Amino acid sequence: MFKHLLVPTDGSPLSQDAVARAVSFAREAGARITFFYAKPEAPAAYLGLGAISNPHLTQELHERLDRAAHDILATAQQLAQAAGVDCQQLALVGDRPYELIIQAAESSGCDLIFMASHGRRGVTALLLGSETQQVLTHSKIPVLVYR
Which of 6, 20, 45, 144 could share a disulfide with 110, CB 3.0–4.6 Å? Predict the structure, then answer.
């Protein structure tokens, strides 16, 4: 049924559980996976605005964000490869992860977005929002939510 999954991951324990389940799902379905990481944009204060304007600090911040993305995606890829699931990695930079997730799924030709939900409820969900809820609301591609 589904042949190409987009699996967003942020490296959190719940996200890592979703990656493991997505790998199992993909193996059973004979599907491939694109693991996705939404890299945050560097805060404006670190980009020369405000009190901090050290170019070395800006470069170091970008390197740390790149390393974090690489490490998170490499961990997911190792799990998929160990299970014999074909996979690739993708990271995009932006301040709206849900838009990046949808963009990545569309541009990669994915037919399912398989993602975790942190399960926030009530006022916490209202205040913090939910990337999963935003993806569910705006995606034209089916979304499977792992909790």
Answer: 6
Q: Which range of residues forms the domain containing residue 61?
A: 4-146
The token duo for 124 is 């916490």
With H, G, I as helix, E, B as strand and everything else as coil, classify residue 120.
Answer: coil
- How many other C-beta atoms are found inside a 10 Å radius of the C-beta of residue 44? 10
**In this predicted model, what pLDDT tens digit does every residue of 42-100 receive, in sequence order?**
765 545 554 455 667 778 888 999 999 999 999 999 999 999 999 999 999 999 999 99
pLDDT of residue 31: 98
CATH code: domain of residue 56 = 3.40.50.620
What is the domain count for the chain?
Answer: 1
Backbone φ/ψ region at 74: left (φ over 0), alpha (ψ -120 to 50), beta: alpha
Structure tokens at 37: 């990481």
| DSSP 8-state code for residue 138 | H
| Contact residues for 59 (Cβ-Cβ < 8 A; gap 6+) | none
